[in-house]
Amino acid sequence: MSADLRIDGARLLASLEELGRHGALPGGGTNRLALSDADRAARDWTVARMRALDMAVEIDAIGNVFATHAGEEDLPPVATGSHIDTVRTGGLYDGNYGVLAGLEVVATLRAAGRRTRRPIQVAFFTNEEGARFQPDMLGSLVHVGGMPLEEALAVRAVDNGALLGEELLRIGYAGSAPVGRPCVDSFVELHIEQGPVLDREGLAIGVVEGVQGICWTELTFTGRSNHAGTTPMALRQDAGMAAARVAAFAHELSQRYGGRQLATVGALTLQPNLVNVIAQSALMTVDLRNTDGAVLQQAQAELLACARRIAAEHGVLLSHRSLADFAPVAFDAALVDSVERAAHSQGLATLRMPSGAGHDAQMFARVCPTAMVFVPSRDGLSHNVREFTAPEQLVQGANVLLQVLLERADR
Amino acid sequence: MSADLRIDGARLLASLEELGRHGALPGGGTNRLALSDADRAARDWTVARMRALDMAVEIDAIGNVFATHAGEEDLPPVATGSHIDTVRTGGLYDGNYGVLAGLEVVATLRAAGRRTRRPIQVAFFTNEEGARFQPDMLGSLVHVGGMPLEEALAVRAVDNGALLGEELLRIGYAGSAPVGRPCVDSFVELHIEQGPVLDREGLAIGVVEGVQGICWTELTFTGRSNHAGTTPMALRQDAGMAAARVAAFAHELSQRYGGRQLATVGALTLQPNLVNVIAQSALMTVDLRNTDGAVLQQAQAELLACARRIAAEHGVLLSHRSLADFAPVAFDAALVDSVERAAHSQGLATLRMPSGAGHDAQMFARVCPTAMVFVPSRDGLSHNVREFTAPEQLVQGANVLLQVLLERADR
């Protein structure tokens, strides 16, 4: 056993700082949109680090990068990793932490002369954030065969309209390894929580049991613009009021369902948006999430029924379209147990929790046993240059990853 | 008596078309913002028409124009009129109709060689719409002494920042007649309804009993922007949800109060307004109106109490400010009766109703007996290039005005 093996915390933290220099923003944080020049520089730096660890590096046709630390036997590798692209105002840890902690695990094994039975693979995936190309988690989605390669290469950048395939060529990351049939033993992703729960509770490790399901719906109410002073209530077709009532219903629904039902109306736009003019139209989004797929579908059905009823009450037209619809993902029970065991063996307090955000790991859950490890995000800040996780928490999470990978790769 | 005297409908309709050419929009309607070049041209045209009727024209220091048709005795005049400025996308009738119908009454009396005991005065007032200078109804407000002249002259245009006083000089309408102490027997304003009630009910004449009270409030909720997927409901400070719930309450309040309680949330803006980000802030307006001032104050108090309670529930900050607060105006009962009698004597069906919009007449209600006559607005369309009232309805309204002015001026 290697219960006393520990990663080099200073080396891990230094590597996070170094990677963060690529696309660094003047006031802190990083802007490293997928397949930008900054992303190329960060990829080059990371690949150099992989090669310095004598890892075998492969790049696939969608630009995902896989570095393998050979095992004693030629078996499917135990994989870890995440992404190194960021949103326009990202921090140092989102994604990067999972990749660099994986490399730190390999560096630790290498320094200790320790070889596992199965190979250990550390990967980073193209365009996880979705801030430059849609959908998000595109690289891992293509990797597991969830999206045809040709379709992915033809996606256009939201900033300058460039084709993803051309941008891959431009930055030198259109690789030759095939996509669609990954051969991997299992996948474990280490990530910051991006939410406030661990920080609030003062816990070191989130044992992630799965990813909650997501239903995004765009609702458009079309009424009639009229004078707010001269139009009796009964003769109105007030699109804004209909939208506000549906938003209030979404809140009421989340309270009534309780538990892990989330409801967010993040966007709501009225036209013409004037104090004394009844709104002609209202465009709103409703983001519903739940770890239980059946409950989520029930909530979504209730929401649409309510929207139809309220639209009819106000005499306004309702149209709606789905912007996203993902069923919940359950991670592998044995691997989840392994994460929890590793944390407890290091004396770390844990919480079993779902992931509220999407991650590359959920793509792997389609093809192999998968789990995730969370560390706290101070105040839950995410996609924010003030994103922060304390150094000791970063080191604790990487040591849990080390132990899980060892246990898995040695079996 | 002059029960058989009737205005010349064709002449009235032609004058509406002619005035509508100043500031005409390509697809119909007019853009004649106060003190613009188009407004100057329309003023010049109207003053020429007044002079052609041998009326004595006076311009006061805020640019209001008064044309007097002499009476048999030198008594305070019975006044009528409205405004000839329009919103950016106005129609042919809003304001213009009241002015030109007044002049048509004088033309009819003149053609019939008919002179009344008291003079009849036809006026148009500066900046009634408030589309270029705030507040609206500015000219009549200054005229009755409700706003100091110096303050009004120092108001800046919302489009180009020009001073109102300078714009008056520029277009040649900074007159010498004093403001603040009007000496007038009474005031009757003829106007399109700007609402759907008469059109819906198939009625010719609205007998306006007063102007409803108005409370405009701007509410700002400030919460915290967070990830919609990773932030539990209990840890949110969702400014958007707080605003939506207050809007829904405003609707519920209008239904509960019933009668003439109106509630409109015309403007609601979220920041950052993204599908998966909890709103950091929400800016909304609530427009409450009622003909009963005490009930309106009660509604406003309930609204603010609700906003405070909901803000506390969501852990968001609330700030609010009043954008407008006008008590209801009651018109003169005898003059209102006179309007109703005139309509009935011409076989026209009437409805007693409040005015939902503000009008110059409400300023006169402070200083003399005042009433208004409404004609239907098709579909209630107002401040819209498709604003429309049928020719026969325009003629009917002007004949009611003729009879009311005759009765009043002959007494």
UniProtKB/TrEMBL annotation, chains A, B:
Ranges of residues in domain Peptidase M20 dimerisation: 211-313
Entry-linked SUPFAM superfamilies: Bacterial exopeptidase dimerisation domain, Zn-dependent exopeptidases
Gene3D superfamilies: 3.30.70.360, Zn peptidases
UniProt GO MF annotations: hydrolase activity
UniProt cross-references to InterPro entries, sorted A to Z: Amidase_Cbmase (IPR010158), Bact_exopeptidase_dim_dom (IPR036264), Peptidase_M20 (IPR002933), Peptidase_M20_dimer (IPR011650)
Alphabetized UniProt keyword annotations: Hydrolase
Domain of life: Bacteria
CDD domains, per the entry: M20_bAS
Signal peptide: none
Protein family membership: Belongs to the peptidase M20 family.
Identification of the protein by name: Zn-dependent hydrolase
Phylogenetic classification of the source organism: Bacteria, Pseudomonadati, Pseudomonadota, Betaproteobacteria, Burkholderiales
